[in-house]
Write a structure and sequence with these properties.
- This protein has 393 residues and is an alpha/beta fold.
- The protein has 2 domains: 20-107, Chorismate mutase (Chorismate Mutase Domain, subunit A); 115-392, Aldolase class I (TIM Barrel), CATH 3.20.20.
- The protein contains 14 helices and 12 strands.
- It has an 8-stranded parallel β-barrel, surrounded by 7 helices.
- The radius of gyration is 30 Å and the shape is elongated.
Length: 393
């Protein structure tokens, strides 16, 4: 019979002395050594991350992890099987990456840790990120002089300082209306100057950054361009304020990293814009991620606004979404408005007419403290037939 601590030989059991406490003490000593080695490894990867941040190298390099795993398995002499070694070290690598990412967040130029006070951006006397919520409104696309004049006149009469309008339009179909380009920039600029408004328009290409900067006050980076790092760097060098929209499927951290690309080039005047993300829901164009607003404000000092039009893709729920965004801490809202939405050449179903815009402002408590007669006068006026013809033709 074989005993637990002995073997049978010559019909006798020879005992093997084992000091259980001594073995356990040795195991604990090894545990402490492993813990010390893990701490030493963590300090080393932190130093590596400092260099990566300075040189713009990605935190996670999968090919490097694969190479280390191959070498570790090759050196494995047991008793643990190779798969166990892979699993143990993958967990160590994962924890190391999380440590480096948290270190990166703390060292980002846009991090709340680097600046406690909220950033206020001033453009032509208007403020983004101040104590009062602001509104950016205007058509999806610049289509005619009459259209832009009608919108600009309404916004000016009702205390709205920011007018949006797309001159270069990224569209899913290559056959859809792509915008008027330079002509659209001029129409937007001219209408804004006549009414002392700040212009916001999208730039899509590094080759047009200089052109758009010459005519626009705020450069918008659309959701499709959030990962265009060359474009982010280029607008970072032009020094104009940048409105950065969250990508269709981007995480909050990915949006912050894109903003860091802009700020790292010297342009700190960045506005973060939540515009909804793509989910399984079909009732709305996108799903507005309200939680992103307080999270972004917690992580960064940059102002945060919400584009309710692109989040919803429909007009009937814009005001509740706007109120929710402001309650969550947004510095302002962005909404699409058109004198005659049914004649708009893009996104007609989500654009408000001017009377609906007035109602939206009132429902979101964005109406300025002024005589409402001017507001009603602007919204009750019939549409200018020349505007209708210009837009429709």
């Amino acid at each position: 019979m074989r005993g637990l601590h002995g073997v049978r030989a010559m019909n006798e059991t020879i005992p093997i002395p084992i000091d259980m406490d001594a073995l356990r003490r040795e195991v604990e000593f090894i545990n402490h050594e492993l813990l010390e080695l893990l701490g030493r490894r963590a300090r080393l990867v932190s130093e590596i991350q400092t260099i990566k941040t300075r040189e713009g190298i990605p935190t996670f390099l999968p090919e490097r992890e694969h190479q280390m795993l191959v070498e570790l398995v090759a050196r494995n002499r047991g008793p643990f099987p190779d798969e166990t070694i892979r699993r143990l070290f993958k967990e160590i690598f994962r924890a190391s990456v999380e440590l480096m990412e948290s270190q990166s967040c703390r060292t980002l130029k846009i991090s709340r840790a680097s600046r406690a006070a909220d950033l206020q951006i001033r453009v032509r006397g208007a403020v983004i990120g101040g104590s009062e919520p602001m509104l950016i409104a205007g058509p999806c696309s610049v289509e005619s002089e009459q259209q832009m004049e009608a919108v600009a006149r309404f916004l000016s009469a009702n205390g709205v300082r920011f007018m949006r309008g797309g001159a270069f339009k990224p569209r899913s179909s290559p056959y859809s209306f792509q915008g008027l380009g330079r002509e659209g920039l001029l129409l937007l600029e001219q209408a804004a100057r006549r009414h002392n408004l700040v212009t916001v328009t999208e730039v899509m290409d590094t080759r047009t950054v200089e052109l758009v900067s010459e005519h626009a006050d705020v450069l918008q980076i659309g959701s499709r361009s959030m990962y265009n790092y060359d474009l982010l760097r280029e607008v970072g060098r032009c020094r104009k304020p940048v409105l950065l929209k969250r990508g269709l499927s981007a995480t909050v951290d990915e949006l912050l990293w894109s903003a860091e690309y802009i700020v790292s080039e010297g342009n700190v005047n960045v506005i973060l814009c939540e515009r909804g993300i793509r989910t399984y829901e079909t009732q709305t164009r996108n799903t507005l991620d309200i939680s992103a607003v307080p999270l972004l404000r917690q992580k960064s000092f940059l102002p945060v606004i919400v584009d309710v039009s692109h989040a919803a893709g429909r007009k009937d729920i814009l005001a509740p979404l706007g109120r929710a965004a402001l309650a969550a801490g947004a510095s302002g809202l962005m909404v699409e408005a058109h004198p005659c939405p049914h004649l708009a050449r893009s996104d007609s179903e989500q654009q408000l007419d001017l009377q609906e815009l007035a109602q939206f402002m009132a429902q979101c408590n964005l109406r300025p403290a002024r005589d409402s007669a001017a507001l009603m006068f602007q919204t009750d006026r019939p549409a200018d037939p020349t505007t209708v013809r210009a837009i429709g033709g």
